[in-house]
Amino acid sequence: MKELRTEEVLACRRALARAQGPERSPLLRGVSGRPIRSPKALKEWHDMLLFLRAHPADAGEFATADAELERVAGIASDMVRRSDRLRHALVNSGLAGTPLQTTCTLGLARWMLDRWGDRVELLSVEAPLEEFAELLRLLLPQAEVETVDRPAADVQELLDHSFGSSRALQLKRLVHGLEALRMDRRVRELLWSRMRVFLKVEGADECGLTFARAPIAAPFHLTDGLQRGVDLPQVVNGPVDPPVRLSMDQQLELIATARTVLGVLERETDPVTWAGAVELFDLGRGLRIALFHLEVAHRLPFDSYVGFMAFRNGVPLAYGGAWIFPGRSKVGINVFPAMRGGESAWFFAQLLRLYRQRFGSTCFEAENYQLGHGNADGLRSGAYWFYYRLGFRPADPAVRRRADRAFKRLSDGKGRTPPLQELKALVAEGLELVMETPQGPVLDTAALSAVLPDHVVARHGGDRVRALRRALERLCACLPLGDPIGWPPDLRTALYLWALPLDLVDDLERWSAAERRALVALLKAKGEATETRHQLLLQRHARLRTAWARVAG
């Protein structure tokens, strides 16, 4: 049988995008089951199969995609075993069983060790020898700290001397040594980042995209083809069903799937790495979106950073997150490369629908980096016009008029794209989608954060420990908190997180009893498993948001 080549795979994907119904079967039969000897062709075929499984026209295509993915995984494993050249070509390809080489946070590295054990090894340490030696001292007993001064040709020789020659053990010793340090987790993460550790995963079939799945009810078949257009206001205002019921094991496996996918693609995000809770929502047409809520210890004081990963027929489709706050929520999405060319506009409308209905968001903002400001990939992708076509507009009237003119030229049928300099000027400003007039002031949380250092310096001479202690004493005196010592740990963490921000409110003692009770409920909701109720309560507490807006100017 004739070998399948890269050009044929790409041509087949283009043809399938245009074909309908019975026209698709001969196209797939012409490429399925054929020998594949090129790593590039294998990767392209793998990505096309993932797209096909996510967007099948019928049950036959779905079954073909599953069967071919099993075959592709076998071919990839054979290539890895057969040749170092082929193995190297498949590094970070996402195919099951192929090598992963990456750098990541300390938290994700520890999780990988817990999940894949000795299949995770140290690849390299890129910190300069002298700097790494100083960092290594922190992990050694006092009696050994001077041993790092022994002459070493490079970092690897120093690691061999300190921990032995096993790369798997060296990684474990670095990770577990940092984890054992009695210091804030942010300091441990900083030390890890200064080491510039790269790791590799070998021989873990589940470490890849080939079989990474979310739970599904039944496969959805796109019998009428892809849905390109969307009435965004109508979709966003539609109700959302309650979360899919998941067992604890299913929740943990969903978090593991998301961590694996982002780890393989080197696109780690905090809500997935530090997930404290996950919810899965069914949005119809085979689309399910998982929302990842940060552990309380990793939460932001003002915005609720809620990440997501979308799945189509169980296949990872996109990831990103929203920074939610009443009046304006920032949102960012990234469709995985293999999934591009599908129903991106329809999917994005469903994502906004979920965030709006779950958290009551009234305005979404796409930040300038997402659009291409200082981001060449975003600029080339046309992200600005993707958002614009969905109804996002610049907040500044002058910039809006400029964008309107540019879009008219773009849409007049002559294909005149705006000059690069004009597009760079446009993407410097964010875009927003306003669905209803927000109640109360629209607060810039970055401006509010910027006020905190001035407050600590002016009131407490820059002494953060004293500032926090005084803030807690004041809150306990004027709010009906009871004794926080008896609170669960997450609620106490939320109290410490909000103590200084609440101390910015100078008239807290003059608030009504009802306003102060509502503030305590809001504060405690910050320490719940999800931040859903916290955001809904924050919308209702106009007194707090008005006070913060006044402080932030």
Q: What is the mean pLDDT?
A: 93
Share in β-strands: 5-15%
Computed CA radius of gyration, to the nearest angstrom: 26 Å
Strand order of the largest sheet: 4-5-6-7-8-9-10
Which outline best applies?
A: globular
How far is the first residue's CA from the last residue's CA? Answer: 72 Å
Number of beta-strand segments:
10
Structural class: alpha+beta
The oligomeric state is single chain
- Work out the helicity level: 40-55%
Count of discrete domains: 5
Number of helices: 25
| Largest β sheet strand count, sense and barrel closure | 7 strands, mixed
How would you portray this structure in words?
- This protein is α+β, with helices and mostly antiparallel strands.
- The chain folds into five domains: 6-89; 100-201, no CATH class; 232-362, no CATH class; 378-434, no CATH class; 445-552, no CATH class.
- It has helices at 6-18, 24-29, 39-54, 59-82, 84-89, 106-116, 129-137, 155-163, 167-180, 185-195, 232-236, 248-264, 270-273, 344-359, 368-371, 376-381, 383-389, 397-411, 420-427, 445-460, 464-478, 489-503, 513-525, 532-540, 542-552, and strands spanning 100-102, 120-125, 197-201, 275-284, 287-294, 304-312, 315-324, 329-335, 363-366, 431-434.
- Strands 4-5-6-7-8-9-10 form a seven-stranded mixed sheet, sandwiched between helices. A three-stranded antiparallel sheet has the order 1-3-2.
- A hairpin with a 4-residue loop joins strand 7 (315-324) and strand 8.
- The radius of gyration is 26 Å and the shape is globular.
